[in-house]
DNA sequence: GCAAAAGTGTTGAGGGTACACCCATGA
DNA sequence: TCATGGGTGTACCCTCAACACTTTTGC
């Protein structure tokens, strides 16, 4: 049996598309690179995979050290293999997307970055590498996923109102959704539970607060949009 | 900027779940290994990624040299990263699943294998590495995919009858489907077109032959099962 | 003529869409 | 009391699920 070390292997990177919902809009976290290649340009956060590290470990490392986050919802997206995607040589990129509540974390630029910032998904700057493609793939995946899986709660606070949830869905799907039908559908799915309290101190009638039903494991939720 | 060669990288393998439909059942192609590890055991076909090779190239290489196939429907499945998944050391496995018509190819055991064989998905032998997990992931993906994307045609001949298509769906989904509702639904979707001819020489009433409508690019096909 | 399988049509129930009205709050 | 936004109810339509009869072939 041949030894592995006799083969030369491509480098393996982990790149993350971190979505956040803030100020009534969907955003992505981007990093301004301090070093070449793509110095001073915006890219997705990422890192090279260490030899003993699982993907999860690598993602946690990026989220922890570069962004000051932990325990976030994450899912594998796609593995990008274009031999020309990195000017330094052959780099395979295994990508994940994450959903976080920006209020819970203070983003910090790590050693490798000039800056870290949230960008409205509709107003992204030019991105280095093939990161625009990666972002588009993630955005599309999120749009599909949210229609049959209750993934939006990860972006909101522990408790939230129906109008807040409604607006989040409109934001992600980039469509109008009838709020009454939306409300009925979500309540019928049993994915959300009333808390009994309301969001007070707003301009108008206080909205009921709900929370995600964590006990519910399986469901045939399917949101149909007009 | 650091040189890449200073880093040691995990090995990168490509593994394939090749589905075929034959004798009214769904099968997977397995390979009996000639060498350690898992010598004389069944595994999914695969190979190490070459330095300059894209995933597509690597898949074509495996399908071509080990299985004598070309130009098949293929889709990326998932990338498996368990550091202990290969006894030889750290190997990341990027997996694809393929759909082929077994009648079109004569499978041949390449240099690396004792044997290559189709196995009924319901009667798989023990598999080496984490290939059982990979298979299950692929099977599940195929089940979901076929409900909203006309992927079954890849497994059939150029022309096929409605009962054949119906049985294929029942096979993949492992459920009974009402044949009348199924037929109406498929015809309404415009994914299939009448050829005008019929399957003659059978025991009973000849069935109409259809073919896949290749012109149709986009559709909101969604099959609902009882 | 009979068995077996293929083609086709109908009906009723349920879910979704598209609506309008009432309610609670701050100013 | 008025404007604004949140909560709730209803009717129609359309789709889907359930089901039965007719047709064509081989023996």
UniProtKB/TrEMBL annotation, chains A, B:
Gene Ontology MF, one: hydrolase activity
One Pfam entry name: NUDIX
Keyword list, A-Z: Hydrolase
CDD domains in the cross-refs: NUDIX_NadM_like
Highest taxon of the lineage: Bacteria
PROSITE patterns: NUDIX
Chain ranges passing through the membrane: none
Residue ranges annotated for the Nudix hydrolase domain, each copy included: 7-143
Secretion signal span: none
Classification via PANTHER family: ADP-RIBOSE PYROPHOSPHATASE, SLR1690 PROTEIN
Protein's name in the database: NUDIX hydrolase
Organism name: Taibaiella soli
């Amino acid at each position: 049996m041949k030894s592995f070390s006799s083969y030369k292997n491509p480098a393996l990177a982990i790149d993350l598309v971190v979505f956040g919902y803030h100020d009534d809009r969907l955003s992505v976290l981007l990093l301004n690179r301090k070093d070449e290649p793509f110095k001073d340009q915006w890219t997705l956060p990422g890192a090279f995979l260490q030899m003993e590290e699982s993907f999860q470990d690598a993602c946690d490392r990026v989220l922890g050290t570069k962004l000051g986050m932990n325990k976030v919802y994450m899912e594998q997206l796609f593995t990008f293999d274009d031999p020309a995607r990195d000017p330094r040589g052959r780099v395979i990129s295994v990508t994940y997307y994450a959903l976080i509540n920006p209020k819970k974390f203070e983003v910090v630029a790590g050693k490798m970055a000039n800056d870290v910032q949230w960008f409205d998904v509709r107003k992204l700057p030019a991105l280095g590498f093939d990161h625009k493609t990666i972002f588009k793939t993630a955005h599309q995946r999120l749009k599909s996923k949210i229609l049959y899986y209750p993934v939006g709660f990860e972006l909101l606070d522990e408790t939230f109102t129906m109008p807040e949830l409604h607006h989040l869905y409109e934001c992600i799907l980039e469509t109008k959704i009838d709020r009454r039908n939306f409300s009925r559908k979500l309540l019928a799915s049993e994915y959300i539970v009333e808390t009994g309290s309301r969001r007070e101190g707003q301009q108008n009638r206080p909205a009921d607060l709900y929370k995600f039903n964590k006990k519910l494991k399986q469901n045939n939720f399917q949101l149909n949009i007009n």
